[in-house]
Design a protein that fits this description.
Length: 142
């Protein structure tokens, strides 16, 4: 897959999370023309980033990639917060993973004591992703 921009990192605070979500949408818009698909990508990114902010630790890194047919977004952090005294994994207590499961073509969550990585893929079925038209005029010149 080819990266759309460089991976970017931020410290887990809600304002940085909102900026990260908007950045994912801007990067995805380079190859995705359908607004509905962009909305889905933004929503899934928001859920993944919110989980990293709430449950993760350290720097959160976001990567956006495409192979021309699929778009892949990955959100990784330095592992779960160490506030569970019983050593249980804290995955998700809201709707985040349910939303991603419903909207993504594929997704995975890998969690170790030192790293949490969630990624998802979306596509337009058998059609390749199409970048938005660069043309600004809607009517042919005569």
């Amino acid at each position: 897959m080819e990266r759309l921009g460089e991976p970017f990192g931020f410290v887990g605070d809600p304002a940085a999370g909102r900026r990260a979500r908007r950045t994912v949408r801007e990067l995805a818009a380079k190859v995705v023309a359908r607004e509905e698909l962009l909305d889905d990508v933004e929503l899934m990114s928001a859920e993944a980033i919110a989980n990293a902010v709430l449950h993760g630790s350290g720097t959160i890194t976001v990567t956006v990639e495409t192979d021309g047919r699929r778009l892949r977004v990955e959100v990784a952090d330095e592992g779960p917060v160490r506030d569970d005294l019983h050593g249980r994994r804290r995955l998700d207590h809201g709707r985040g993973l349910t939303v991603i499961d419903a909207l993504a073509d594929e997704w995975s969550l890998d969690q170790t004591p030192h790293r949490t990585r969630l990624w998802f893929l979306v596509s337009q079925g058998d059609d390749p992703l199409e970048p938005p038209s660069r043309r600004t005029d809607r009517f042919p010149l005569r």
